[in-house]
Amino acid sequence: MADFVGALDQGTTSTRFMIFDHGGNEIARHQLEHQQILPQAGWVEHNPTEIWERTRAVIQTTLNKANLAHSDLAAFGITNQRETTVVWNRRTGRPYYNAIVWQDTRTDRIASALERDGRGETIRHRAGLPPATYFSGGKIQWILENVDGVREAAESGDAVFGNIDTWVLWNLTGGTDGGVHVTDPTNASRTMLMDLETLDWDDQLLSFFGIPRRMLPQIKPSSAPDPYGTTRADVLGGEVPLSGILGDQQAATVGQVCFAPGEAKNTYGTGNFLLLNTGEELVRSKAGMLTTVCYKFGDQPTVYALEGSIAVTGSAVQWLRDQLGIISGASQSEDLARQVDDNGGVYFVPAFSGLFAPYWRSDARGAIVGLSRFNTNAHLARATLESICYQSRDVVEAMREDSGVALDVLKVDGGVTANELCMQMQADILGVPVSRPVVAETTALGAAYAAGLAVGFWTTTDELRQNWNEDKRWHPTWTDDQRHHGYADWKKAVERTYGWVDVD
């Protein structure tokens, strides 16, 4: 068998391809950013064609860097930004519209109408999700209703839908020449259209959004011993089995080897996503969490999770860089924040797309509170990093309420974990140790694990556990009094964001 597994990680701001060996060690990677298209307030789009072009480029560059060929890869896995929605023509391969990104809020009226007339409870029970702008169903409905010709093409079978995993897989396996139209349960569970118990599209849920069933991809296991397809020769130079798909946060959970009920991880990226493995038990949240599929490996039982999804964390640091211009790079946020000993009374709630878990307030918008003449850009930088940590505490508190499980340690991964001050703040604000693995980019690693397990490159999840090694651990240094007062002020700041936008 070949010595390596490849994983495509198509994220909100960039696309990367990574190659791993049997020990879970990174061999090579290449990464390219793509454009963030912001047509108007609350709208966030990507160009699907640009994403596909970036995908081809990062795969080929990574193989060249490592001096490897397709024959060196035993399998290929995909992980992706989840709810971002693409509708394209299966005959021409052309998207009808830009991808509508998970952060986009244009569907707030659709979500509000579902909640208002009682359909929201059916969605919660069957799909495990509240009606929200976050998920794919409303985005598909918006495209069907607002882009000329799409409704007719969908009814005839020419217009098809996929989250980014499906779009990339379709192109990788041939596109208009036999491309495979498939997704996995982790991505399908983010649409408001799949029944969590049957792992199939639900006709009543589809009717809520007016979506023809024939638009939707086939749902196959996250780790597929019978591969979805093989890569096109013009992309990798030959055929490699495509045998793993996991939405990005579930992929990070697998990469962090959280295979036992009660194990949790927090990924720090554009947003933050904390997942708690609940095993084969489908736990229905009463505290604002999402019930989601954690993974489905072959014919083994489905494993579920509770998830706390936070819209804006790392992207708040990008906002400091790109919109305010007070830092020149993300790493500079740590240096600037270290210039002061505390936040100077400033709290920043970055509710740019409303508030996600556990609040689910689409009427909220960002707020900076507690300002006095004393405050500087360093206090704002520190408040930005603290906002990442306080939002994560909100989710941890809600998960404890739902599950009865108190965290002993929080496993962390993602780009923001390189910010050591932020990770120390996280330990202080939570009051538990924070642990970062040697391989911090666990999203791609999880996709590699899913693909490799399917073809026997790895044989068991116990084998994967042996690959996990801790890089660094942060211990709390705040007193209980500091922690209590800081969190109380944060909760006051959150309340100040409510009701800023009128939602019909």
Automatic annotation (TrEMBL):
Sn-glycerol 3-phosphate binds at residues 12, 82-83, 134, 248. Its EC number is 2.7.1.30. Keywords: ATP-binding, Glycerol metabolism, Kinase, Nucleotide-binding, Transferase. ATP binds at residues 12-14, 270, 314, 318, 415. InterPro entries: ATPase_NBD, Carb_kinase_FGGY, Carb_kinase_FGGY_CS, FGGY_C, FGGY_N, Glycerol_kin. Inhibited by fructose 1,6-bisphosphate (FBP). This is Glycerol kinase. It comes from Actinomadura rubrisoli.
